[in-house]
Design a protein that fits this description.
Length: about 425
């Protein structure tokens, strides 16, 4: 298992380009199952999760590849008129976003057998809202042996009200509704930019979706969809992570490709912490303060402060001039980075879904363990500030969601190395 070693100290300075969004790419690859023709996705991040989903699609009989050639980061997916509509446990276990094939398989092929994803480090992560919505669209859903068995001759449009806002739930049901007969209304839908990007691609394939990006989405069902050429939006969470890297090293970094409108809540909190963050022609520039100010934050659904940035802000606030209170309202167990940050000298106390972060003067490098994707990023960020060397183990967690983060940080002056 690889490790990433980080030498604390250097101020990060310069330009870095953000990669395409993992959380937009995965639903877009599933959406390609809906198209009669081939779909080509550009600006796809070179990540383990993308490769895993390509593998899954190929086991279903779908032509799904990284496109070889000069231009990298291009994926092509072409589903034939009939596929093996199954997603086995050993693949879904590796990547729970595989459940996103449920909607498209039901809509286009009338059948799906997908393993229940099971929990993960950050929480139980049920998909009850997905299944409730599919039933509302007329699907027969059975749960047996840890699998979802879904069938539907033709889905029928209906009004679906989510009891809880769910990002992949909204995406899954959107992909089912586009080929349903009649109109579907999604109420209490997720408003993330990744949902909007998915709707944009689906409409380019011939779907008729209005309101994506708001909590009320209306879909007029159509009979078939074509393939599409689509460029994936940039990864707002990687962009936010790079902004925090500038902040925590008293640096000055321009994150090219960051979309200011996708990061309002994060930029707001960085400014409260004393950073200077300015939009540029093609991104965001962040200058870090000598010592950050303490900041209270609550994670909520978009456009609120994203749970995927909570661990990264906690690293920054662990060296603030005072006490910050962080509430994690989306997942029930997303504080695993706390124990590791404390090993680096952070003073953090967890009380239920709240973490009280008492800023300390310095962090000290230490051997630490990554437990989930964003916790890994948080430990690397803390290592950039920590005196001495931080050795982050189990960085396969990081590689699921960041394309060569340590190389991106090196180009900004960080002393980060990957050790086999
Ligand atoms: C998406 O996960 C993202 N993943 C997550 O990013 C992100 O943290 C999360 O949205 C919240 O923003 C992808 O887009 C691939 P949810 P998702 O369904 O869709 C509960 C990362 O780091 N819930 O919005 O699985 C659920 O347990 C990953 O890139 C139900 O109770 O999240 C959670 O507490 C981590 N029933 C809350 O809702 C359901 O049917 C939000 O979950 C569905 C969800």
């Amino acid at each position: 298992m690889d490790q990433i070693h980080v030498e604390g100290g250097p101020r990060l300075e310069g330009e870095v380009r953000v990669s395409g969004s993992k959380n937009a790419t995965l639903p877009l690859m599933a959406a390609a199952l809906l198209g009669e023709g081939a779909t080509t996705l550009r600006n796809v991040p070179d990540l383990a999760d993308v490769t895993t989903l390509l593998e899954l699609l190929r086991t279903m009989g779908v032509d799904a590849q990284w496109v070889p050639g000069a231009e990298r980061h291009v994926v092509r997916v072409h589903a034939p008129p009939n596929v093996l509509p199954e997603a086995p446990y050993d693949l879904v276990r590796k990547m729970r976003a595989s459940v996103l094939v449920l909607g498209p398989l039901l809509a286009r092929f009338g059948r799906a057998r997908v393993s229940l994803p099971g929990g993960c480090a950050i929480g139980a992560r049920p998909i009850d809202q997905h299944l409730k919505a599919f039933r509302a669209l007329g699907a027969e859903i059975l749960l047996e042996g840890g699998y979802v068995e879904a069938r539907a001759r033709r889905l029928k449009g209906a009004t679906v009200r989510f009891d809880k806002i769910t990002v992949t739930g909204t995406e899954n049901v959107l992909m089912a509704a586009v080929l349903a007969e009649g109109t579907t209304v999604l109420e209490n839908a997720a408003r993330e930019p990744e949902v909007e990007d998915l709707a944009r691609a689906l409409n380019a394939m011939g779907a008729r979706i209005r309101g994506a990006g708001t909590d009320l989405v209306v879909v007029e069902g159509v009979s078939t969809l074509t393939g599409v050429e689509h460029t994936v939006i940039s990864d707002r969470i990687e962009a936010g992570t790079l902004l925090v890297a500038a902040a925590i090293t008293r640096g000055d970094v321009h994150v090219q490709g960051a979309v200011p409108a996708h990061l309002d809540a994060v930029v707001g909190k960085l400014r409260e912490a004393g950073c200077t963050v300015v939009p540029t022609a093609d991104g965001l520039r962040c200058k870090g303060p000598d010592v950050p100010e303490p900041v209270d934050l609550q994670t909520t659904e978009h456009p609120g402060f994203p749970t995927d940035m909570q661990a990264q802000l906690m690293a920054l606030l662990s060296v603030a001039r005072g006490t910050s209170v962080i509430s994690e309202n989306i997942f029930e167990n997303r504080f695993m980075h706390v124990a590791e940050l404390r090993r680096m000298g952070a003073d953090i106390r967890v009380e239920g879904h709240t973490a009280v972060v008492k800023g300390v003067h310095t962090l000290s490098g230490a051997p630490v363990m990554a437990t989930d994707l964003r916790a890994s990023a948080s430990l690397i960020l803390a290592g950039l500030r920590g005196a001495g060397t931080t050795r982050v183990a189990r960085v396969y967690h990081l590689d699921r969601g960041y394309e060569a983060l340590e190389r991106k940080l090196q180009t900004l002056g960080a002393r980060t190395t990957r050790v086999k």
